[in-house]
Amino acid sequence: MNPAFILKGILIGLSIAAPVGPIGVLCIRRSLRDGPWAGFTAGMGAATADAAYGSVAGFGLTAVSGFLVSRQFWLGLIGGLFLCYLGLRTLLSSPAADAAPERGGGLPAVYASTFLLTLANPATILSFTVVFAAFGLGASVDYMAAASLVAGVFLGSALWWLILSAGVGTLRSRLGTAWMTAVNRVSGATLIAFGLYALLRLRPAGS
Q1: CA dihedral 71, 75, 77, 79 (to 10 degrees)
Q2: Using CA of residue 21, residue 26, residue 27, residue 31, what is the dihedral sign?
Q3: pTM, to two decimals
Q4: End-to-end Cα separation, the chain, in angstroms
Q5: Residue 165: which of 33, 49, 43, 45 has the closest Cα?
Q6: Cα distance between residue 165 and residue 151, in whole Å
Q7: CA distance 68 to 17
Q8: Would you call 36 exposed, middle or buried from its count of C-beta atoms within 10 A (0-12, 13-18, 19+)?
Q9: How far is 43 from 51, CA to CA, in rounded Å?
Q10: What is the rounded distance in angstroms from the CA atom of residue 37 to the CA atom of residue 110?
Q11: Which of 17, 38, 140, 185 is surrounded by the most beta carbons within 10 Å?
């Protein structure tokens, strides 16, 4: 492994994960509702997807990239609808219901849902390609350098989700029912807004 490329990958992973988006909202809400481990697990699903897309960009897998981008409309449609569903469910839920044990697979389901939701945005490949180029990293790097870069991306993304979930999780015991109700309303409305925005940006292939 190349330490210099690992460090660059960490910086890239942080820069991709840090901006607040739908995954960030989900991680924050999971940390408040179920504790920091649940929030971190949600973030790790996103970190794994980031590493997968980083691999596509870092190893120059143009065939895979082209396949995903060509199906961006359908992936975006599924992702947008899923965000709207999560937002609506969050908006209508009550803190009392949130306090009940989570059904449907627990932490593995939390991980899988954010992993698939992050994968539903193949434009992330383009983000990695642009950021890699900004760091002076092109398709000509060797496989060991590319592997170091992808490992760094995963570590950087995971580090951000650890910081976020741990920080938000410390507030969990200080929030009463009224605050958690407000969190549900704001989180739900934000997720619905992200979902509607994703749907409005859709363009059929070839248009």
Answers
A1: -170
A2: positive
A3: 0.70
A4: 43
A5: 43
A6: 21
A7: 20
A8: buried
A9: 12
A10: 11
A11: 17
